[in-house]
UniProtKB/TrEMBL annotation:
Protein name in the entry: SDR family oxidoreductase
InterPro entries recorded: NAD(P)-bd_dom_sf, SDR, SDR_fam
Native source organism of the sequence: Noviherbaspirillum galbum
Family of the protein in this entry: Belongs to the short-chain dehydrogenases/reductases (SDR) family.
Highest rank taxon of the organism: Bacteria
Annotated coiled-coil segments of the chain: none
């Protein structure tokens, strides 16, 4: 299927590895000019070169901290009029809420709620003026089913979800959709970190904890960044123009609810 976005410009955050990279790869494969952002310059440039080599795409790498005003300014200077924005920032650490300070909460809200909102604020009006825009926020399955040790993430990402629910209904008439992608358990460094905390808490080996978790998923496996990126690319497509304000769950069937 031709997604109709060849030649569009995309800003993809947290794209040096994991799910962000999966989204950048999928968009580049559709002929999108991609600007990728992450904190570590060496890893980011290696990713950019690999995507260029594999897809023949135009890829610009901007090493910055997207959670800061300075970082967002650098990213938007490199991609000043994006047609597509994929927001993504590293999730806050797992733990017990009794140990979290106000500063911990502020950092989580800043990275996982306010940063996406600031990126939307900086780009959505230009998208509406041009009559096309796609904003995809990478959030978490914890928005649907909270995870007890990820309370910081549960709270911050749910706040973003509520904000998007209102705004997405205002922008769609002018060709701009805003949707959230909710990953379940994907084979990423983030999963290993979360499982590492669970292993430490239980006193069990990491491999044993991960295998037990994998077997709980109806698909009997963890997801891949490639299939996550493919769904992101579809949400950015011309065909998805009637889809906005949605929380798209990718979890191998793990969420047990009907709705």
């Amino acid at each position: 299927m031709d997604l109709g976005i060849r030649g569009k410009r995309a800003l993809v955050c947290g794209a040096s590895k994991g799910l962000g990279r999966g989204c950048a790869e999928a968009l580049a494969g559709e002929g999108v000019h991609v600007t990728i952002v992450a904190r570590t310059a060496e890893a980011l440039e290696a990713t950019a070169e690999d995507i260029r080599r594999r897809h023949g795409a135009t890829v610009t790498a901007v090493a910055c901290d997207i959670t800061t005003p300075e970082g967002r300014a650098l990213a938007l200077a490199a991609c000043p009029q994006p047609d597509i924005v994929v927001t993504n920032a590293g999730g806050p650490p797992p733990g017990d809420f009794r140990n979290w300070t106000r500063d911990d909460w502020i950092a989580a809200v800043d990275a996982n709620m306010l940063t996406p909102i600031e990126l939307i604020k900086a780009t959505v009006d230009g998208m509406m003026d041009r009559g096309f825009g796609r904003i995809v926020n990478i959030t978490s399955s914890s928005v649907k089913a909270p995870i007890d040790i990820l309370g910081l993430s549960n709270g911050a990402r749910s706040g973003l979800t509520g904000f998007v629910a209102g705004l997405a209904r205002k922008t769609v008439a002018r060709g701009v959709t805003i949707n959230n992608l909710l990953p379940g358990q994907f084979d990423t460094d983030r999963l290993k970190k979360t499982m590492g905390a669970a292993a430490t808490s239980s006193g069990k080996p990491l491999d044993e904890v991960m295998d037990a978790r994998r077997k709980q998923i109806p698909a009997q496996r963890f997801g891949t960044a490639e299939e996550f990126g493919a769904v992101c690319a579809f949400l950015c497509s011309m065909q998805a123009g009637y889809m906005t304000g949605q929380n798209v769950l990718l979890d191998g069937g793990n969420y047990p609810g009907t709705y």
